[in-house]
Design goal:
The protein has about 140 residues and is an all-alpha fold. The chain is built from six helices and no strands.
Length: about 140
Amino acid sequence: MLVARQEWVQSVVTGAAALFVCSACAGPLAAGEAAFRDGDYPKAQHDFAAIEPAARRWPPAGRAEFALYRGLTIASLGDVARAEPWLEEARGLEDAIPGSLSPDDARRLETAWQAWCSGCTPTPPGGGPEPARARPQKLH
């Protein structure tokens, strides 16, 4: 009985910790995703660029989602070459840890991959675009 209770407590604590870690990335990421969904790609690009340093320290699911939307945003602004490393990172994380992306985001990634990534290679976890390569270009 005591072992079962300890396992239950451990699972609750682990779940709460995971929820806390994921909630740390939800707010900033949500703003960029909302701008992306609204078609305001310059604002989405700005929002994602602003949180990029923090996003590199997020758990895999948050990093995969960030990389996906960063790549989709850059591609939507017409710069597929700069989008590819981000889509490669999202694909690498999803391949290494299936379920890192929600089912809808996994479908978005697959659609983008087929449309834009003919020569892409998934980036293993811990890799990703170099910061200098990922900096947004000034939009006019």
